[in-house]
Amino acid sequence: MRRVAMSLPEGEAGSSSQPPKPRSDWATLRRLLPYLWHYRLRVAVALAFLVAAKLANVGVPVLLKKLVDSLSITPGSAQALLVVPVGLLVAYGALRLSTSLFTELRELVFAKATEGASRRISLETFQHLHALSLRFHLERQTGGMTRDIERGTRAVHTLISYSLYSIFPTLIEVGLVLTLLALQFDPLFAWITAAALVLYIAFTITVTEWRTQFRKQMNELDSKAHTRAIDSLLNYETVKYFNNESFEARRYDESLERLRKAALKSQTTLSVLNTGQQLIIATALIAMLWRATEGVVAGTLTLGDLVMINAFMIQLYIPLNFLGVIYREIKQALTDLDKMFGLLEREREVADKPGAPELRIEGATVRFEHVDFAYERDRPILHDVSFEIPAGRKVAVVGPSGSGKSTLARLLFRFYDVQGGRITIDGQDLREVTQGSVRRAIGIVPQDTVLFNDTIEYNIAYGQPGAGREQVEAAARAAHIHGFIASTPKGYDTIVGERGLKLSGGEKQRVAIARTLLKNPPILVFDEATSALDSANERAIQAELQSAARNKTALVIAHRLSTVVDAHEILVMEAGRIVERGSHASLLARSGRYAQMWRLQEAGAPAAEAVAAGSAAAVATPPL
C-alpha cells in the first residue's frame, strides 16, 4: 500500500490560528473608514450641519455682548431702548434655536450612517465566525467572545458619536473662539486660552493613558467573570449532579472580587484626572477674567466684552470637562473595535480556493485515498486510510473509541483538510470545490445532537429552510417522533430549550434524524445515529434509516455492530488504521478483531435486554 508522508502546514492542523496582534489606534480607525465611506454623502451633509451649529453657537456670546452694550444708553433715548434690545433678544433666541436645530439635523442625517456601519460590521463578524474552522469553535470561550462582539458593536456608535458630536465640534469652536479673541481683543487672551487648552489636553491624555491599563484589566476581568458565569449556566445539570452550586458561586465571586478591586483602582485614577482638569480650568478662568476686568477698569473693554469673554470660556470649558471621559471612552472603543476586527481577521484554517467550482454530483461515489490526519502535530489520528463507498452503497466503520471513526465524518464535511492523501466525491477533490456545495450534498445524524432554542418544527425544518408543516410532519413520522410531538400540549410549536435540554437524548436524536431525512441529500452519514435510543426504538428507527439510505451513498459509524450487519462493507479501525474490511459474514468467518467484538456484544446483549425488561416491569407494576 502506498504511504504518503504526513505534512502539517503552518497554521493548519496542530495549532489553531493565532489571533492578530493589536494594531495602533490610527490603524483601527483606518479599518473603520471604509464602512463610513459608503455613507460619504451623509457624512458631508452632517459635517455641514455641524459647522452651522458651531457658527450659531459662537454667535451667541457675540450677540450677548451687543445686548449688554446696548443697555448702556443715555437719557432720552427711549426708542432705542424699545427697539434695539428687542431685536437683539429675538436674534439671540434665533441663534440658540439654530444651534439646537442644526445639531438635531446633524444627528438625524448621520444616524443612518452610524447604524448602517454597525450593522455591516456585526454581520461580517457573524458570517466570518461561521466560516472559521471547527478547531476555533472548539477552543473559543463563548462568554468572552460574545462580550467582545457586543463591545465592538457598541464601539462603532461610541467612536462616531464622540468624534463627530464632541471632539470635532469642540475643535471647530476652539478655532473660531481663538480667532475672535486674537482679532478683536488683546492677543494675550488668545494665548492664555491656547496655553490652557494645550496644558489641559496634554494632562488629560497623559493621565488617561496611564489609567488605561486599569480599564483594560477591568474589562478582561469582566469578560472572565462573564465567561465563568455562562459556562456554569450552560452546564447547569452537571453542577446539580455534583452538588457544586456553592463551588460555582465561590469561583464566580472570586472573579467578581478581582473585578471590584480593578474598578476601585480605575475610579481612584478617575478622581485624580478630574481634579487636575478642574485646577487647570479654574486657573485659566481666573487669568482671563482678571485680564478682562483690568480692561473694563481701564476703559479699553466694555461690560459686554467681559460678558462675551466669560461666555466664550464657559462654552469652551464645559465640553472640555468631559474630555477625559470622551478620550477614555474613545480609547476603550478603539480597543474593543480592534478586538472585533481581530475576530474578523482570524485566518480560516479551511478556505475555498479562489474561483473554486461547485461540486457536481454524478452518483455520489466517495473515496478516501491514503488519508493522513492529525488534530495536533504530535498526535496523529489517521494513518494511510483508504476505502471507497460506491454510489448507492453503504459502508460501515466500527472500532473502539478513539480509533478515528468520527474523524472520517469531520473530514468528509471538510471541517478540516487532510494533511496527506485526498478525499473525493465523484472524483473531485474536496479541496478543489466549494465547501458549501460539499455540505449541501451530505446529510448527517451526529452522535451528540444539539438543537436550537426554538420550536420542534423549526429544528426539523432546519434541514430544509422554508419547508411546510406537511413536509416536517412526514419527516417526523419517518423518524418515529410524530407521536411524541403530537402528545405534547403545543405539538410542533413546543420549545425545546437551550441546546434541546427539554428533550431526552432519544428524542433529540430522532429530531436530528427527521431533520436529515427532510434534507434528503445524496450522501448520508450516520455517526452513532441510534446510540441514544432504547432497543425497541432502535429497531424501528433502523428500518427507517435503511429505507432512507436506499439508493444513497451512506457512511455509517457505529458502536453497536448489530446496526451494521446489512452494510455492503464493514471497516474495522484501530488506532487510526483500517485493520479489517469485508462483509459481516466474511469478517465473522475470519475470526479476527471484528468477530471478537461481535462475540463480546452478543454476550452482553441478553443481560442488557433482561435489565430493560425488568425496568419495564417495575414501571408497569404499582408499588405495594
State the secondary-structure class: alpha/beta
Q: Biggest sheet, in brief?
A: 6 strands, mixed
**Percent range for helical residues?**
55-70%
Tally of individual domains:
3
Shape: elongated
Strand percentage lies at: 5-15%
The helix tally amounts to 19
Low-confidence stretches: 1-17, 75-83, 607-624
Largest sheet, spatial ordering of strands = 6-7-8-3-9-10
CATH homolog superfamily of the largest domain: ABC transporter type 1, transmembrane domain
CATH C-level category of the largest domain:
Mainly Alpha
At the fold tier of CATH, the topology name of the largest domain is ABC transporter transmembrane region fold
Rg computed from alpha carbons, rounded to a whole number of angstroms: 36 Å
Distance between the termini: 67 Å
Oligomerization status of the protein chains: single chain
Number of strands: 10
What is the second-level CATH architecture of the largest domain? Up-down Bundle
Mean pLDDT across every amino acid position = 78
| Element string (H = helix, E = strand) | HHHHHHHHHHEEEHEEHEHHHHEHEEEHH
